[in-house]
Amino acid sequence: MHQPDRPAAGRPSLRRRFALAAAACAAVLAAAVAVPLVHASAATAGFVSRCGIHFCLGGHPYYFAGANVYDTFTYGGSYGDTETQWMDKTRIDNHMAELAADGVTVLRTWMFDHETWHGFEPSKGVYSEQQFAEFDYILYSAAQHNIRVIPVFENYWEAYGGIDTRLSWEGLGTGQANRWRFFNQAACPGCFTQYQHYVSYALNRTNHYTGVKYKDDPTVFAWELMNEPRYEGQGAAESVNGTTLRKWVDTMGAYIKGIDSNHMVDAGLEGHGTRYGFGGDEGNPFVAIQQSPYIDFTSAHPYPNEGWANLTLAQTVTLVDAWLADSHDVVGKPFFLGEFNTQGVDRSTWWSSIYGDLQSRDADGSAFWWYPDAQAGGDNYSVKKGAPELSVFRAHSAFMAAKSGGNPPVSGSPSASRSVSSSPSRSASASAPASPSRSSSPSAAGGCRVGYALNDWGGGFTATVTVTNPGPAPITGWTLKWTFAGNQAIGNAWNATVTQSGQAVTAAAMAYNSTIPAGGNAQFGFQGTYSGANAVPAQFTLDGVACART
């Protein structure tokens, strides 16, 4: 019962190649009506929140101009030492600087990959500490450049594995004809469990550059459930009403909100539908899905110049205005043009109309597709530094910032005030650096406390160790030791040089965290494997002094 203009072939094929097709919106405007801002009573300081049909930050309206860079997580070799080979910090920093210079204030980017190369979860339930460490740095660098981030948890399409991989892990068929099963709990209960475990791991993760959990970091603008979910091909009623997808969105939105009360959540919809004359009915209706009480704002991804869409500029303006009206007046939430761009037309002209319409109709935010850096490849939708249309974007960004009273800093986030030492943290297999100077007597004589936070998925685990100095004097050049009770084997570590001999483990400070000030702490972590039991070590000693447990 789908309409013939549905992108059954054209769009997925583009996604296979580029992780996401992009497109554009346009707009010359009609008359705009200003809508009063309704302030949220429970907004958390430092976090962008929803205030009625708009965003707000610190009690003031917040509007933004953003961009998509889906592949930031791939910067680096995906091999070797985490800090110097797996990730390319210089490239990440340089790209963030480019984005900021051109006025990008919100970055939408992928936080998923099931492949071996830069995989966050390369096999079921096994999370790559090295890859998440790279995302730690992405968040850190974004905050340093006053950019907020929308991480996307998963992909409907096959790029970087997507839900096809999760279906295969449950022994189910893959491809677009089978993807509906992912959203149907009766058809794939394991898919629900997999997704929730991944989300929980990410939200509860502590960024090892900032010491802040992802769920507590104002650098994150919002969490996106999935890139372009659909419950497609399961009958006319589902296609139009989206009942099953709505249930999935409610379930996962509630799950995230149960862990993280700080951040907004969006569904990641394309906005297709016969009522809009754009695409077909695909089990993901714009209004019904995004009316979920767990979704904070709507999204849409227009592609006016694709062959299956073939919209004129005027038609694109009408399309965007229809979404915006439904978002503000029917759904009652802010509107985010989550992807857009044009091809085969004068981009600056189209962008001028797009942004002019968004501004005049009081739209809340947008993110063009896409802004690769100089080292990345390109396609018909690439917009690289120096492109003429970026002058249009910069003017739009300045307009949106002015409506927000300026570009508020990513405040309240330790990532915005800390610096990362040029000294790389090493993996457990790396040779130990020169030992920092040590005091001649036990430096922890004033006492110590150790916290050991375990994230265990059965057979594998990560541990975050926090060493606290409760004494009146700093601890300098510390070494922490413990003994595992089982057969735990450490694979790699960060923020300490960790060595293991049998069950005995030694963690030595790096040069940049070798001093723990009075009342302060140092934190490091590691990834390991085991069989049987994985008990928390019973005793820790710091420079020969037994530590209390926290």
TrEMBL record:
Record-linked PROSITE patterns: CBM2 (PS51173), TAT (PS51318)
Entry GO CC: extracellular region
Keyword Disulfide bond set for record: no
Domain CBM2 stretches: 441-550
InterPro entries: CBD2 (IPR001919), CBM2/CBM3_carb-bd_dom_sf (IPR008965), CBM2_carb-bd_dom_sf (IPR012291), GH (IPR017853), Glyco_hydro_5 (IPR001547), MAN-like (IPR045053), TAT_signal (IPR006311)
Cell compartment(s), UniProt: Secreted
Keywords: Glycosidase, Hydrolase, Secreted, Signal
GO BP, one annotated term: cellulose catabolic process
GO MF annotation list: cellulase activity; mannan endo-1,4-beta-mannosidase activity; polysaccharide binding
Region annotation (Disordered) ranges: 404-445
SMART domains: CBD_II (SM00637)
Signal peptide location: 1-40
Reaction catalysis annotation: Endohydrolysis of (1->4)-beta-D-glucosidic linkages in cellulose, lichenin and cereal beta-D-glucans; Random hydrolysis of (1->4)-beta-D-mannosidic linkages in mannans, galactomannans and glucomannans
The name this protein goes by in its record: CBM2 domain-containing protein
